[in-house]
Amino acid sequence: QVQLVESGGGLVQAGESLRLSCAASGSIFSINDMRWYRQAPGKQRELVATITSGGTTNYADSVKGRFTISRDNAKNTVYLQMNSLKPEDTASYSCNADISSVGGRVFRYWGQGTQVTVSS
Length: 120
Fold this sequence. Notes:
The chain is mainly beta. Helix content is 0%, strand content 59%. It has strands at 2-7, 10-13, 18-26, 30-39, 46-51, 57-59, 67-72, 77-82, 91-100, 106-110, 114-119. The strands form 2 sheets. Strands 2, 4, 5, 6, 9, 10 and 11 form a 7-stranded mixed β-sheet that branches. A 4-stranded antiparallel β-sheet has the order 1-3-8-7, with no helix packed on it.
């Protein structure tokens, strides 16, 4: 079994920063791509950022220049540094990761989500 657990969400004012963490645990052999998604009430889920096992990153246009995704492979953890937060960044943020356990099959796992609320 593999679990992803997010942390770091909260309530901040516009212009402030937050750092989200997502730690994977369990029967892990390797972790490929890791991603952050967000979903605001009444809106579709949005892919925010992706990081490959080699460290290549991609971002949604809405967060480029403000958010930074990174990972610590030794800790099986992905981070999302969010700077210059705006009210429109308010959403539930979830991570997912493509993980293989011993045996070789790759599955995509999701965390439970953490709420980020940005007040104006």
